[in-house]
Amino acid sequence: MIKAITGTKDILPNEISDWKHLESIVNTIFTSFNYKEIRTPIFEETSLFARGIGEETDIVGKEMYTFIDRSGTSVTLKPEMTASVVRAFIEHSLGKLQPLNKFFYISPMFRQERPQAGRQRQFHQFGGEALGSTSPLLDAELIIIAYQILISLGLKDLTVKINSLGIPASRENYKKLLRDYLKDKKHKLSEDSRKRYDMNVLRIFDSKVESDQEILKDAPLIIDHIDEESKRDFEIVKEILDKSNIPYEIDPKLVRGLDYYSKTTFEIISGKVGSQSALCGGGRYDLLVEQLGGTATPGVGFAAGIERILLACENEKSLNIPAENIDLYVVKLDENLSSEVFDLGLKFRKENLAVEFDYLNRSVKAQMREANKLKARFVLFVGGDEYKSGKLNLKNMSTGDQQLIQIPDAGIISEIINSHIHSDSKEK
Ligand code: HAM
After folding, report:
1. What is the pLDDT of residues 263-298, one digit of tens each?
2. Is 307 in the pocket of ligand 1 (CB under 6 A)?
């Protein structure tokens, strides 16, 4: 039997209502902050990610799905969206249309990581990117958006972590300090951390090895060595979060795994999803546009993992989305009325009602069982003496009320059902 590739998952119909609910919250909240949706291709030229994310990061070094296509071009399934958004921004000169561009997206991503709960090889992110301003108001705005989306999904066990990595010049100075501190302890570090010492020393903070963390206990912290401008911006972000009642922690060890960050970085962590606890991550990337060949344009953004968020929702039992019910089930009482039932079905479907009937020649009892299973709001009986005398019987499944309707007036049925749907949604 052919199975789905390791690390990928089917999203089955019984899970779709949760996905749609999340997507509609993402749409509503980003739209209320005037972010516009952007969709970019699933694959890009490999060099975009190598240059954008950084050759020495885990993503570029060992996680990308890269292949040579038939024309000999090296292409990569996108492991993240920021580089793609920046590519599209430069390619279409979007910065010339308006000075500030705010984008949001929902898209599958691909990283060849070791699969585990909350970590897949094809996963989905939603996120936002604001290009065109250095204002820390935008850093705070994006943290607020991410937090608001998670809260709207009913999540409670959340921790917002923030840090500042400073501008590249101050970060380079700090890296020297960190290397100096670790120099005589290097031999005690894990193999991975020893590699990072030379290639990407900040990432040693991400090590899960206890003895590495022990060594780092007294290490100098980046937040104490950032430049004045980054410090000032970080203070503003904190002030806004305070005013917006968003609880946060300063985590001086939050270095993030992508090379493009400068100044503020942040993550939101869930206490309910095990080791893969980061629901979202982001930060400022003021040099990325220029680095990818565009006119220097500052940027800031975040992305959130949808599978992880839904796992957190499941573990916190925070979502209670009822399965979508159908509006009408047409029950066929006489076998020879198949084409009449089919035509009635079409008629109501054209009026945008969700309609179903039997295709399997089932008994009336079995059709009723199906109507119940589908949680039909109404059932329409077609056949029997009523039909012979020119009438259809419409049953409201929540009240049990039945009503006879003259066939030429069948249009009234959709009015009855629609008014019922409206009163239902008002009650909610
Ligand atoms: P990231 O931290 O690599 O950042 O990913 C963001 C989120 O995507 C993570 O917090 C996690 O929830 C989810 N995620 C990452 N990898 C996986 C995986 N293998 N399986 C399931 N979920 C995963 C970025 O991608 C940046 N582009 C964020 C950003 C946007 N920074 C600025 N703008």
Report:
1. 999 999 999 998 889 999 999 999 999 999 999 999
2. yes
Gap from CA of 344 to ligand 1 centroid (Å): 48
The domain that holds 415 is classified in CATH as: 3.40.50.800
For residue 301, give the ligand 1 atom closest to its CA: 33
Do residue 282 and residue 366 come from a single domain?
no
Using the mean position of ligand 1's atoms as its centre, give its distance from the Cα of residue 256 in Å: 10
Are the C-beta atoms of 173 and 335 separated by less than 8 Å? no
Burial letters 146-181, b for 16+ CB under 10 A, else e = bbbbbebbebeebebbbbbbbbeebbeebeebbeee
Query: Which residue's entry shows tokens 């040099």?
Result: 287
Amino acid, single-letter form, for residue 73: T
The reply to whether 268 and 353 lie within a common domain is no
Domain membership of residue 59 (yes or no) is yes
Same domain, 157 and 42: yes
Atom from ligand 1 closest to the CA of residue 256 = 2
Separation between Cα atoms, residue 318 and residue 368, nearest integer Å: 33
User: Strands, DSSP E only, in 271-359?
Assistant: 278-284, 299-305, 328-332, 355-357
Query: Which tokens sit at 346?
Result: 């079409």
Rounded-to-integer distance, Cα 42 and Cα 50, Å: 16
pTM metric for this prediction: 0.94
Q: What's the domain count of the chain?
A: 2
Distance 302 CA to ligand 1 centre (A): 8
Q: Assess whether 280 and 146 both reside in one domain.
A: yes
**What is the CA 295 to chain-centroid distance, rounded?**
29
Atom number in ligand 1 closest to CA 304: 7
| Residue 64: predicted pLDDT | 97
CA of 257 relative to ligand 1 center, distance in Å: 9
- Structural domain boundaries enclosing 84: 13-167+226-316
> Is residue 77 included in any domain, yes or no?
yes
Q: Is the CB of 284 under 6 A from ligand 1?
A: no
Ligand 1 pocket residue status of 82, Cβ below 6 Å: yes
Please check whether residues 284 and 346 belong to one and the same domain.
no
Distance from the alpha carbon of residue 266 to the mean position of ligand 1, in angstroms: 12
Residues 378 and 310 in one domain: no
Verify that 265 and 361 share a domain, yes or no. Answer: no
Least Cα distance to 151 among 290, 245, 216 occurs for 245
Q: Are both 119 and 266 inside the same structural domain? A: yes
Q: Give the pLDDT confidence of 112-126 residue by residue, as tens digits.
A: 999 999 999 999 999
User: What's the confidence (pLDDT) of residue 428?
Assistant: 53
